[in-house]
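User: My instructor asked us to take a sequence, write out its structure as C-alpha coordinates, and then describe one feature of it. I'm not sure where to start. Here is the sequence I was given:
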Amino acid sequence: MTPHIEIKKAINKRLNELGYPIVQGFPRVEVHSFDTTPSGDKANLVYDVTFIIEVLDKSTSPSNSLTMISNIRANLEDGLTISGYNLVFLDYELLNEVEETTDTEEIIWRQIQRIRINLNKL
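Assistant: Let's start with the prediction itself. The C-alpha coordinates for your sequence are:
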Protein backbone atom coordinates (compact mmCIF):
# COMPACT_ATOMS: atom_id res chain seq x y z
CA MET A 1 0.00 0.00 0.00
CA THR A 2 1.43 3.40 -0.94
CA PRO A 3 1.78 5.91 1.88
CA HIS A 4 -0.55 8.53 0.44
CA ILE A 5 -3.52 6.15 0.69
CA GLU A 6 -2.80 5.52 4.37
CA ILE A 7 -2.15 9.23 4.96
CA LYS A 8 -5.49 10.17 3.39
CA LYS A 9 -7.30 7.62 5.59
CA ALA A 10 -5.53 8.94 8.70
CA ILE A 11 -6.12 12.62 7.82
CA ASN A 12 -9.82 12.02 7.09
CA LYS A 13 -10.17 10.14 10.40
CA ARG A 14 -8.41 12.93 12.30
CA LEU A 15 -10.52 15.64 10.62
CA ASN A 16 -13.65 13.72 11.61
CA GLU A 17 -12.39 13.58 15.22
CA LEU A 18 -11.88 17.36 15.09
CA GLY A 19 -15.49 17.81 13.97
CA TYR A 20 -14.81 18.29 10.25
CA PRO A 21 -16.20 15.23 8.47
CA ILE A 22 -15.67 15.01 4.71
CA VAL A 23 -19.14 15.96 3.39
CA GLN A 24 -20.78 17.83 0.52
CA GLY A 25 -22.16 21.32 1.07
CA PHE A 26 -20.73 24.21 3.06
CA PRO A 27 -18.71 24.60 5.14
CA ARG A 28 -16.58 21.64 4.17
CA VAL A 29 -13.02 20.31 4.15
CA GLU A 30 -11.36 18.50 1.24
CA VAL A 31 -8.08 16.56 1.16
CA HIS A 32 -6.42 16.18 -2.24
CA SER A 33 -3.38 16.58 -4.56
CA PHE A 34 -1.00 14.02 -3.07
CA ASP A 35 2.61 13.89 -4.29
CA THR A 36 4.80 11.10 -2.91
CA THR A 37 8.60 10.98 -3.22
CA PRO A 38 10.45 7.92 -1.86
CA SER A 39 14.14 8.04 -0.96
CA GLY A 40 16.71 5.76 0.62
CA ASP A 41 17.25 2.05 0.10
CA LYS A 42 14.77 -0.81 0.57
CA ALA A 43 15.91 -1.39 4.14
CA ASN A 44 15.44 2.25 5.12
CA LEU A 45 12.81 3.72 2.79
CA VAL A 46 11.68 7.25 3.65
CA TYR A 47 8.71 9.03 2.06
CA ASP A 48 8.17 12.74 1.60
CA VAL A 49 4.49 13.38 0.91
CA THR A 50 2.85 16.71 0.15
CA PHE A 51 -0.90 17.26 -0.06
CA ILE A 52 -3.59 19.92 0.25
CA ILE A 53 -6.22 20.44 2.93
CA GLU A 54 -8.80 22.87 1.62
CA VAL A 55 -11.50 24.54 3.71
CA LEU A 56 -14.49 25.92 1.80
CA ASP A 57 -17.17 28.16 3.25
CA LYS A 58 -20.01 30.10 1.64
CA SER A 59 -20.09 33.41 3.52
CA THR A 60 -19.66 37.16 3.19
CA SER A 61 -16.60 36.96 5.47
CA PRO A 62 -13.55 34.66 5.54
CA SER A 63 -13.66 34.43 9.35
CA ASN A 64 -15.33 30.99 9.61
CA SER A 65 -12.97 29.38 7.08
CA LEU A 66 -9.97 30.98 8.81
CA THR A 67 -11.15 29.67 12.18
CA MET A 68 -11.57 26.18 10.70
CA ILE A 69 -8.10 26.06 9.09
CA SER A 70 -6.51 27.50 12.27
CA ASN A 71 -8.16 24.78 14.37
CA ILE A 72 -7.02 22.10 11.92
CA ARG A 73 -3.44 23.44 11.98
CA ALA A 74 -3.41 23.58 15.79
CA ASN A 75 -4.73 20.04 16.29
CA LEU A 76 -4.08 17.86 13.23
CA GLU A 77 -0.77 16.32 14.27
CA ASP A 78 -1.84 15.42 17.83
CA GLY A 79 -3.27 11.91 17.70
CA LEU A 80 -2.45 11.40 14.00
CA THR A 81 -1.44 7.78 13.39
CA ILE A 82 -0.69 6.43 9.92
CA SER A 83 -1.10 2.67 9.61
CA GLY A 84 2.18 0.92 8.74
CA TYR A 85 4.27 4.09 8.94
CA ASN A 86 6.19 6.14 11.49
CA LEU A 87 5.50 9.88 11.24
CA VAL A 88 8.86 11.69 11.34
CA PHE A 89 7.49 15.22 10.92
CA LEU A 90 4.53 17.22 9.65
CA ASP A 91 5.17 20.71 8.30
CA TYR A 92 2.71 23.39 7.18
CA GLU A 93 3.99 25.03 4.04
CA LEU A 94 1.96 27.42 1.92
CA LEU A 95 -1.45 28.81 2.96
CA ASN A 96 -3.50 30.60 0.30
CA GLU A 97 -6.83 32.34 0.61
CA VAL A 98 -9.12 32.55 -2.42
CA GLU A 99 -12.41 34.41 -2.73
CA GLU A 100 -14.78 33.22 -5.47
CA THR A 101 -18.18 34.47 -6.57
CA THR A 102 -20.68 31.90 -7.89
CA ASP A 103 -23.09 32.42 -10.79
CA THR A 104 -25.74 33.28 -8.20
CA GLU A 105 -23.48 35.97 -6.63
CA GLU A 106 -22.72 33.92 -3.50
CA ILE A 107 -19.20 34.23 -2.09
CA ILE A 108 -17.10 31.13 -1.42
CA TRP A 109 -13.95 31.43 0.69
CA ARG A 110 -11.20 28.84 0.24
CA GLN A 111 -8.33 28.37 2.66
CA ILE A 112 -5.81 26.17 0.82
CA GLN A 113 -3.13 24.67 3.08
CA ARG A 114 -0.22 22.67 1.63
CA ILE A 115 1.25 20.18 4.09
CA ARG A 116 4.43 18.08 3.94
CA ILE A 117 4.71 14.82 5.85
CA ASN A 118 7.92 12.84 6.18
CA LEU A 119 7.55 9.21 7.26
CA ASN A 120 9.18 5.82 7.10
CA LYS A 121 7.79 2.31 6.85
CA LEU A 122 7.48 0.37 10.09
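For the description part of your assignment, you could build on this observation: The chain has a mean pLDDT of 91. Try explaining in your own words what that tells you about the chain.
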